[in-house]
Design goal:
Elements (H helix, E strand, L loop, with lengths): L14 E4 L15 H7 L13 H9 L13 H14 L18 H6 L5 H5 L27 E4 L5
Antiparallel strand pairs: 1-2
Helix pairs in contact: 2-3
The structure holds heme C (2 copies).
């Protein structure tokens, strides 16, 4: 729905709209670890280990000092514990197992799962990045990505 556009009025109308999605697998990701949650959930949601293969997590844990342009290093014992946790729950299903990326948001699985999300939504300032899972998955913090928790941020900005 289009509103009246004005050069001076800047109006951000933000509401929620639940998106009907076909019921698929139970996307409540199991497994947690206190150190993983604290360290890997401090700058962004602690991404479910199931969404990347072991090799990606190993590579990531070896380069935490240069983590996507930031320093996310932890002490050796913490790194060992988090690494073991990630590997234990790493994605082994076909489609995830062969991935080489360190970005969940760049896996073929992710792109397929999100193909119905339109370009305007990805550009929405409330979303910013596809890595910002919690912008749409309201229960992502708890590892819950089930469809009932999905709310696509809506906004209309006129300027
Ligand atoms: C100091 C902040 C910080 C900490 C701590 C941190 N990260 Fe990140 N992480 C980032 C940033 C910044 C990005 C890039 C986000 C973007 O592109 O929007 C990122 C991206 C990621 C991505 C890719 C997201 C995607 O799908 O595009 C993964 C996976 C990830 N981090 C895992 C981890 C793990 C595992 C840990 C704990 C060992 C961790 N992060 C700790 C800052 C951090
Ligand atoms: C811009 C909003 C948005 C962002 C950001 C987003 N998602 Fe989604 N996600 C959706 C929508 C919408 C669906 C449902 C797609 C469909 O079925 O058409 C979905 C589906 C899913 C599903 C399957 C849910 C189910 O039960 O069907 C998972 C798992 C998931 N996303 C994980 C993630 C992860 C992990 C991230 C961050 C790396 C992420 N999503 C980022 C909107 C988003």
């Amino acid at each position: 729905m289009k509103t009246k556009w004005s050069k001076t009025l800047s109006l951000a109308l933000i509401c929620s709209l639940s998106v009907p999605v076909a019921a698929i697998a139970d996307n409540l990701f199991a497994g947690t670890n206190a150190k993983w949650k604290a360290e890997c959930g401090s700058c962004h949601v602690a991404y479910p280990a199931q969404l990347l293969p072991t090799s990606s997590w190993q590579r990531m844990m070896k380069g935490l000092d240069k983590h996507f342009g930031t320093d996310a290093s932890v002490d050796t014992s913490t790194a060992a514990e988090i690494g073991a946790f990630l590997e234990k729950h790493a994605g082994s299903k076909r489609g995830i197992a062969g991935e080489t990326t360190m970005r969940v948001s760049e896996t073929a699985w992710f792109e397929r799962e999100h193909r119905k999300v339109d370009a305007a939504t990805w550009k929405n300032i409330k979303v910013k990045s596809a890595a910002n899972c919690a912008a749409c998955h309201t229960a992502a913090e708890a590892g819950d990505y089930r469809e009932r928790g999905i709310r696509i941020p809506q906004q209309e900005i006129t300027r």
